[in-house]
């Protein structure tokens, strides 16, 4: 075997070994429990924040005789059942909510449950109905992982302390 052939064989062998070691490290990282929990926490935070914002919003123009479909889509369990039995929402002021801060305070990825705290700004979409302007709310949501993502199963208002609004 010539010197050039031996050098090429050594380079190919070294490259293959580096690829194999890289693939092994990548596979190990994918199955890392810390990484998996962080991914589950991030998903619960994103889905839970979106669901809480939906539950804080109301557009009576989209079928005020019934519970908004967005509320039903954002919920599961007992809360979902209770919402389906609400009386018509006619006469309620329209509002758009946005989550300004949120955190997952508890996560059981194995059981598919989590708790989320969030701060919402709720703005009247028709200011003449609510002359008070933006309202700040703090809530704690209980979440359940479903096939369609994390859904709210319970929602509790958290009182704002002194100086808060």
Question: How does the SSE layout of this entry go?
Answer:
Blueprint: H1 3-30, H2 33-56, H3 69-74, H4 77-84, E1 95-108, E2 113-124, E3 135-146, E4 149-157
Antiparallel strand pairs: 1-2, 2-3, 3-4
Write a brief caption for the model:
The protein is of the alpha+beta class and 165 residues long. The protein is built from four helices and four strands.
What does this structure look like?
This protein folds into two domains: 1-31; 34-157, Nuclear Transport Factor 2, Chain: A (Roll), CATH 3.10.450. The radius of gyration is 25 Å and the shape is elongated. The termini are far apart. It has a four-stranded antiparallel sheet with strand order 1-2-3-4. Strand 3 (135-146) and strand 4 (149-157) form a beta hairpin. The longest helix has 28 residues, at 3-30. With 165 residues, it is an alpha+beta fold. Helices cover 40% and strands 28% of the residues. The chain has helices at residues 3-30, 33-56, 69-74, 77-84, and strands spanning 95-108, 113-124, 135-146, 149-157.
Short key terms for the protein model shown above:
165 residues, 2 domains, Nuclear Transport Factor 2, Chain: A, four-stranded antiparallel beta sheet, 4 helices, 28% strand, single chain
Mean pLDDT: 84
Query: Remind me, CATH topology of the largest domain?
Result: Nuclear Transport Factor 2, Chain: A
Shape: elongated
CATH class division of the largest domain: Alpha Beta
- Beta-strand proportion: 25-35%
How are the strands of the biggest sheet laid out side by side? 1-2-3-4
Rg (CA only): 25 Å
Number of strands: 4
Order of helices and strands: HHHHEEEE
**Main beta sheet: strand number and arrangement?**
4 strands, antiparallel
Alpha carbon gap, first and last residue: 82 Å
Roughly how much helix do the residues carry, as a percent range? 40-55%
Number of helices: 4
Unreliably modeled segments: none
**CATH architecture descriptor of the largest domain:** Roll
Helix and strand content put the structural class at alpha+beta
